[in-house]
């Protein structure tokens, strides 16, 4: 699978301004590079623009200025289908569909064509595997709306792992989890990153936790008029 | 974006109410007619309308009834009219939805491009701007009397009406599942089939059933222009001033609407259990618990 990785750098931002309104940009990022296989955590106060940065990398919010390259594709062109996995802060699961259906949406992106009506065998296989990996076998056919918050987070993680992406963008996906589930989720994601040399960008409020998981931690700093990114090298403590 | 002007919804509602009172006062010249109206209604009700003439459930004299014993009701005008109305309503709801669902996916602004979306919206609005009755007249002129004209008229109207309800439901869904799929690189058709339809299925189903009910009710209207169904008989007896039969047909339509409504509740309870309905179980009604 790692043959699909193009080059060394998963994400590169040069002079990027993020925000929704040219007159009130949220943050300027002079330079940010994320290598394949690297786990980067972003911390910072609420409302500063962390989710917006992630959405900008995901290609959902256009940058106000600057150059962005993700998985070898220079914006506005998008990375190959399935290369980028994004877990929104509020998950974005289909509430009335089953766990399997939701996870299959991830593996579809990688293992099916854009007009395939039925999912390929491979897609179903990967969906099943990541459901088991997240410990949700007994919930496979349960609709999302009947799951607890923590279970829903695991479904969203399974959806992205089933996609086998080269880059995972996860927005606060460790909050609301009990200690055991959190370790389970972290372990799965970290292992995946090691095996597939996938880059992980995660937003994490808890700096202590961020330091434990990530290779590198960046803090989006306060100062709403002219926010900036300060990089803080942290000790390499892996789980 | 921040809007400069803020509108207090409660004040706005009060404003709307008093505006309509003002407009009504201007439009009505003689309020005295209302009082005589009530007296008229009473006379009309007592002398012509009540009691309903339930003979509509008896078999017609001609053509001869060949139904087996005990099934003679199937030869009654009520049965024939209602079953034709139900058939027309069912076929046109299914055909209408088959056409309106793809159109509404194209019309929804969270899925489609602004250009395509506005073209489809204009198309749907134009189908809707003529009431089903006018469409029925149009098709009766085009292809003559009978259920086919009714089906075509209802289908066209269903596309316009249901299409609007559907694209509004689709636009109302959460954007997050679409964002996650978009980032992963899923295409428009995949998103429509795998995300939009399951996520809004509950709304789509209840709208389709509502549309079916609407079409049953309007079956009694379009029948008047000869487009088939129970409306044919309603019109017939209206013409002969046989109002006690007319009211019997109307009660039948009303009961049918009630039945469809309870079927709708039942069907939707399979798709959602967020607000459990406290439906009384027959057993608990018939066999009271002993304390
Ligand atoms: N779609 C949008 N359109 C306009 N403004 C938005 C939009 N989404 C977010 N914002 C604004 O952008 C700012 C940053 O939001 P963002 O969600 O990126 O913050 P965050 O750092 O992720 O905060 P939190 O830690 O609370 O999740 C906020 O002031 C918010 O109001
Ligand atoms: Mg956020």
CATH superfamily of the largest domain in chain A: P-loop containing nucleotide triphosphate hydrolases
Which percent bin holds the helix content of chain B?
over 70%
How much β-strand is present in the residues of chain B? Answer: under 5%
The ligands bound in this entry are:
adenosine-5'-triphosphate, magnesium ion
Number of domains of chain A: 2
The domain count of chain B comes to 1
- Give the SSE string of chain B: HHHHHHHHHHH
Average pLDDT value of chain A?
84
> Would you identify the CATH architecture of chain B?
Orthogonal Bundle
- Compute the average pLDDT of chain B: 83
Label this structure with key terms.
heterodimer, A: alpha/beta, Rossmann fold, 4-stranded antiparallel sheet, 10 strands, disordered C terminus, B: 291 residues, 11 helices, binds adenosine-5'-triphosphate, binds magnesium ion
Any overview of this molecule?
The complex is a heterodimer of chains A (239) and B (291). By secondary structure, chain A is an alpha/beta fold. Chain A has 6 helices and 10 strands. Chain A has helices at residues 50-57, 99-111, 121-133, 149-162, 179-196, 207-213, and strands at residues 9-18, 27-35, 39-43, 65-70, 73-74, 84-87, 167-171, 199-203, 216-220, 229-232. Chain A has a 6-stranded mixed β-sheet, sandwiched between helices. Chain A has a 4-stranded antiparallel β-sheet with strand order 2-1-4-5, with helices on one face. In chain A, strand 4 (65-70) and strand 5 (73-74) form a beta hairpin. The model of chain A is unreliable at 1-5 and 223-239 (pLDDT under 50). Chain B has 291 residues and is mainly α. Chain B has helices spanning 9-27, 32-49, 77-107, 114-129, 132-143, 147-171, 176-184, 188-222, 231-239, 243-268, 282-286. In chain B, helix 5 runs antiparallel to helix 6 (147-171). The chains are: A alpha/beta (239), B mainly alpha (291). The A-B interface holds A 21, 55, 58-60, 78-88, 90-97, 101, 104-106, 108-109, 114-117, 145-146, 156, 159, 163, 165, 169 and B 1, 174, 176-187, 189-190, 193-195, 198-199, 201-202, 271-274. Magnesium ion (MG) binds next to helix 1 of chain A.
């Amino acid at each position: 699978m790692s043959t699909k990785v193009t080059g060394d750098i998963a994400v590169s931002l040069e002079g990027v301004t993020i925000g929704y309104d040219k007159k009130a940009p949220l943050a300027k990022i002079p330079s940010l590079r994320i290598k394949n296989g690297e786990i980067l955590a972003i911390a910072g106060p609420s409302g500063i623009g962390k989710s917006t940065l992630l959405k900008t990398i995901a290609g959902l919010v256009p940058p106000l200025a600057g150059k962005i390259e993700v998985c070898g594709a220079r914006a506005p062109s998008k990375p190959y289908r399935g290369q980028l996995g994004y877990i929104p802060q509020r998950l974005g699961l289909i509430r009335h569909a089953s766990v399997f259906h939701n996870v299959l949406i991830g593996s579809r992106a990688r293992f099916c064509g854009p007009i395939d009506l039925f999912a390929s065998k491979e897609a179903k296989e990967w969906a099943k595997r990541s459901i088991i990996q997240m410990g949700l076998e007994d919930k496979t056919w349960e609709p999302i709306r009947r799951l607890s918050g923590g279970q829903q987070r695991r479904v969203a993680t399974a959806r992205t792992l089933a996609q086998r992406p080269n880059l995972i963008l996860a927005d606060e996906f460790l909050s609301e989890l009990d200690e055991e589930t959190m370790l389970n989720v972290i372990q799965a994601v970290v292992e995946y990153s090691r095996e597939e040399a996938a880059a992980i960008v995660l937003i994490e409020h808890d700096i202590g936790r961020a330091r434990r998981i990530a290779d590198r931690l960046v803090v989006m700093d306060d100062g709403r008029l002219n926010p900036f990114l300060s990089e803080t090298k942290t000790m390499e403590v892996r789980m | 974006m921040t809007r400069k002007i803020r509108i207090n919804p409660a004040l706005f509602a009060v404003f709307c109410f008093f505006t309509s009172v003002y407009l009504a006062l201007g439009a009505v010249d003689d309020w005295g007619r209302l009082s005589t109206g009530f007296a008229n209604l009473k006379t009309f009700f007592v002398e012509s309308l009540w009691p309903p003439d339930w003979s509509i459930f008896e078999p017609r004299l001609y053509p001869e009834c060949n139904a087996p014993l005990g099934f003679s009701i199937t030869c009654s005008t009520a049965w024939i009219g209602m079953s034709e109305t139900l058939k027309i309503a069912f076929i046109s709801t299914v055909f209408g939805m088959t056409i309106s669902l793809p159109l509404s996916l194209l019309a929804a602004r969270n899925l489609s491009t602004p250009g395509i979306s506005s073209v489809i919206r204009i198309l749907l609005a134009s189908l809707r701007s003529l009431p089903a009755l006018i469409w029925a007249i149009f098709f009766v002129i085009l292809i003559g009397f009978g259920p086919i004209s009714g089906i075509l008229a209802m289908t066209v109207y269903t596309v316009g009406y249901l299409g609007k309800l559907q694209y509004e439901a689709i636009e109302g869904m959460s954007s997050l599942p679409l964002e996650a799929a978009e980032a992963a690189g899923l295409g428009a058709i995949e998103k429509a089939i795998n995300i939009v339809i399951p996520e809004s299925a509950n709304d789509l189903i209840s709208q389709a059933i509502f549309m079916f009910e609407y079409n049953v009710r309007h079956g009694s209207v379009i029948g008047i222009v000869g487009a088939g169904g129970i409306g044919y008989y309603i019109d017939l007896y209206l013409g002969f001033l046989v109002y006690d039969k007319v009211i019997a047909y109307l009660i039948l339509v009303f009961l049918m609407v009630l039945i469809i409504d309870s079927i709708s509740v039942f069907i939707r309870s399979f798709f959602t259990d967020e607000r459990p309905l406290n439906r009384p179980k027959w057993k608990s009604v018939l066999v009271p618990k002993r304390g």
